[in-house]
Structures are given as C-alpha cells and as structure tokens.
Amino acid sequence: MATNRTFTMLKPDSVEKGNIGAILEKITASGFRIVAMKLTHLTTQDAQAFYEVHSERPFYGELVEYMTRGPVVAAILEKDNAVEDFRTLIGATNPDDAAEGTIRKLYAASMGENAVHGSDSDENAAIEGAFHFSGREMF
Ligand code: DAT
Ligand code: MG
C-alpha cells in the first residue's frame, strides 16, 4: 500500500537562482504539506551515497559535483499517494521531456541540472527522509 510521504530536495541550481519560494509555493498549492524542511549542504560522501545506484553511469562524477556545489533544501512532504503524485508534479528527468506546468519544465536548465529531486518509491522516501531528519524534526 502506498504511504503518504515523500522526500524532496530543491537542488543547488534552484537555490542559486532564487527559485526556492516559487517552487515551494507550487508544491504547497498542489496539496503537499511540509512535514520537515531544512537548508543543508551535502558532502561528497553524502551525494555519492545518495546516488549510489548510478555509480557506474558516465554522468556520476558530474552529478556528485553538482549536488555538492552549494546548499539544497531538503524536505519531507505529505499527501495521499505522495510519491507518485510528486513525481507527476516534478515532471520527467529531462526537462525537455517534462510536461507543461511541471517544476522541471518551469525551473530546470538541463537533464544534469534538473532543479528538484523526488523519491521514486515509498521505501526510498522513508530511507531518504530518515537520512536527513530525526523524528523530532518531523511535524
Ligand atoms: P530522477 O531524478 O528523475 O529520479 P534518475 O534517478 O534516473 O532521475 O537520475 C538521478 C539524477 O541523475 C537525475 O535527476 C539527473 C541525473 N541524470 C540522470 N540521467 C542522466 C543523464 N543521462 N545525463 C546526465 N545526468 C543524468
Ligand atoms: Mg531517481
């Protein structure tokens, strides 16, 4: 059964471009409740572990560089069917393929710098959220 939470990061390009407010507005206007949130800077080890599944891919080094070049906004979001609905809201990995009105269509520059992360399963949402937040930081 689907749980009702997902994990997101507004990636370094979103922070650099001053898009945090606009993206959070879109997220909350789409019915997601913010359960936990912080500005945090991933270490190289954090980013390598987060994207471990892609460690053999040619873009892995660039991905880790990008994700560690400045702070990100990490958050846990709550809504019915959160994981799937949030993936729909952010749009396809490559912004060129993302549907009109999605966060990546509106705010992502490229496949490599695509503005926002959304968990791809309930299991990963729980793991990713627990990596960044203790129980006392979730409301
Ligand atoms: P998503 O972030 O949509 O879940 P993913 O898990 O397949 O996508 O990949 C993680 C991130 O890696 C993605 O947001 C951007 C980067 N990435 C994926 N495929 C890439 C590619 N072919 N070239 C460059 N970056 C890529
Ligand atoms: Mg993914």
Automatic annotation (TrEMBL):
<feature type="binding site">
    <location>
        <position position="93"/>
    </location>
    <ligand>
        <name>ATP</name>
    </ligand>
</feature>
<dbReference type="InterPro" id="IPR034907">
    <property type="entry name" value="NDK-like_dom"/>
</dbReference>
<keyword id="KW-0597">Phosphoprotein</keyword>
<keyword id="KW-0479">Metal-binding</keyword>
<comment type="subunit">
    <text>Homotetramer.</text>
</comment>
<comment type="similarity">
    <text>Belongs to the NDK family.</text>
</comment>
<feature type="binding site">
    <location>
        <position position="114"/>
    </location>
    <ligand>
        <name>ATP</name>
    </ligand>
</feature>
<feature type="binding site">
    <location>
        <position position="11"/>
    </location>
    <ligand>
        <name>ATP</name>
    </ligand>
</feature>
<feature type="domain" description="Nucleoside diphosphate kinase-like">
    <location>
        <begin position="3"/>
        <end position="137"/>
    </location>
</feature>
<keyword id="KW-0418">Kinase</keyword>
<keyword id="KW-0547">Nucleotide-binding</keyword>
<keyword id="KW-0546">Nucleotide metabolism</keyword>
<keyword id="KW-0067">ATP-binding</keyword>
<keyword id="KW-0460">Magnesium</keyword>
<feature type="binding site">
    <location>
        <position position="59"/>
    </location>
    <ligand>
        <name>ATP</name>
    </ligand>
</feature>
<keyword id="KW-0808">Transferase</keyword>
<dbReference type="InterPro" id="IPR036850">
    <property type="entry name" value="NDK-like_dom_sf"/>
</dbReference>
<feature type="binding site">
    <location>
        <position position="104"/>
    </location>
    <ligand>
        <name>ATP</name>
    </ligand>
</feature>
<dbReference type="InterPro" id="IPR001564">
    <property type="entry name" value="Nucleoside_diP_kinase"/>
</dbReference>
<keyword id="KW-0963">Cytoplasm</keyword>
<feature type="binding site">
    <location>
        <position position="87"/>
    </location>
    <ligand>
        <name>ATP</name>
    </ligand>
</feature>
<protein>
    <recommendedName>
        <fullName>Nucleoside diphosphate kinase</fullName>
        <ecNumber>2.7.4.6</ecNumber>
    </recommendedName>
</protein>
<dbReference type="Pfam" id="PF00334">
    <property type="entry name" value="NDK"/>
</dbReference>
<feature type="active site" description="Pros-phosphohistidine intermediate">
    <location>
        <position position="117"/>
    </location>
</feature>
<dbReference type="GO" id="GO:0004550">
    <property type="term" value="F:nucleoside diphosphate kinase activity"/>
</dbReference>
<comment type="function">
    <text>Major role in the synthesis of nucleoside triphosphates other than ATP. The ATP gamma phosphate is transferred to the NDP beta phosphate via a ping-pong mechanism, using a phosphorylated active-site intermediate.</text>
</comment>
